[in-house]
From TrEMBL:
<dbReference type="GO" id="GO:0016301">
    <property type="term" value="F:kinase activity"/>
</dbReference>
<keyword id="KW-0808">Transferase</keyword>
<dbReference type="Pfam" id="PF01633">
    <property type="entry name" value="Choline_kinase"/>
</dbReference>
<keyword id="KW-0418">Kinase</keyword>
<comment type="similarity">
    <text>Belongs to the choline/ethanolamine kinase family.</text>
</comment>
<dbReference type="InterPro" id="IPR011009">
    <property type="entry name" value="Kinase-like_dom_sf"/>
</dbReference>
<protein>
    <submittedName>
        <fullName>Probable choline kinase 3</fullName>
    </submittedName>
</protein>
């Protein structure tokens, strides 16, 4: 007799009672994404749905650690899997989401913040920064590739089967169409984090990958299509990804402000936001020199 597969039951969403899902992402969109991604063979299989949750396939794998992302072989597999993920065809329009999502989060953050917090994070100036990035990084770059992006590719959202080395990307709350350079940039930024340390909110940007490591990841990413990438394509994506780190800093900085008001998890969201905004202002003159303040 065949053994019964082990499954995971995802019941009532733990953060919804605190309003996290309503404010930061659309739970219905996340469920729809899960269903489509599952049909494409990514992530756990969807085995069933019920009111308030779903039944997922159990994945015989472990979550990556922060150190795993620096392993050359693991990083290459993550790059190849990300390329596959970006090619998923989600029904509907393919509009880039990141800019309007940040504007929406900015409005929410400003409505929640005390005047002191609003002044500290310069929230009255952030919409101009979003507009600047959208123009410089997106509207002026007509040829950039748009794909279905995960938008939160930190090590905790990647699993590896230690028998087969197969990579699985999980958790699609923030997934949407965006420039693929943004998704890669966000992944690079996440290498500064270790969410399982004694101070999970502290980011160490000395761990941000150097040019050689970033180039290797992008080479592996582009090679996943089956062809050796052109040097000019590697250079272009390398440059685009570096600039899109600015969008990542603002995105998660705003996320941290909102989360600090609505999320009860033991995590210093405010300090996390400070670090992301600080990094934005530090890197902007280097990456957008012609538009620096």
């Amino acid at each position: 007799m065949d053994s019964v597969p082990v499954i995971v039951v995802s019941g009532n969403w733990p953060n919804d009672s605190e309003g996290v899902g309503d404010l930061l992402f659309n739970r219905k969109d996340e469920i729809r994404t899960f269903e489509v991604v599952s049909r494409y063979g990514h992530g756990p299989k969807l085995l069933g749905r019920f009111a308030g949750g779903r039944i997922e396939e159990f994945i015989n794998a472990r979550m990556l650690s922060a150190a795993d992302l620096r392993e050359t072989a693991v990083s290459a597999r993550v790059a190849a899997k990300l390329r596959e993920f970006h090619c998923i065809n989600i029904p509907g329009d393919r509009n880039v989401v990141i800019w309007d999502r940040m504007r929406n989060w900015l409005r929410q953050a400003k409505s929640m913040c005390t005047s002191e917090d609003s002044a500290e994070f310069c929230l009255d100036n952030i919409e101009a920064e979003i507009n600047l990035m959208e123009y410089e990084l997106h509207k002026e770059r007509k040829k950039q590739e748009i794909g279905f992006c995960h938008n939160d590719l930190q090590y905790g959202n990647v699993m590896i089967d230690e028998d087969t080395n197969a990579i699985t990307i999980i958790d699609y709350e923030y997934a949407s169409y965006n420039p693929v350079a943004y998704d890669i940039a966000n992944h690079f930024c996440e290498m500064a984090a270790n969410y399982h340390s004694e101070t999970p909110h502290i980011l160490d940007y000395t761990l941000y990958p150097g040019e050689e490591e970033r180039r290797r990841f992008i080479h592996n990413y582009l090679s996943a299509s089956g062809k050796e990438p052109k040097e000019e394509d590697i250079k272009q994506l390398l440059d685009d990804a570096e600039k899109y780190t600015l969008a990542s800093h603002l995105f998660w900085g705003l996320w941290g402000i909102i989360s600090g008001y609505v999320n009860k998890i033991d995590f210093d969201y405010t300090e996390y936001s400070r670090q992301r905004f600080k990094q934005y202002w530090l890197q902007k003159p280097k990456l957008l020199s012609s538009f620096s303040s």
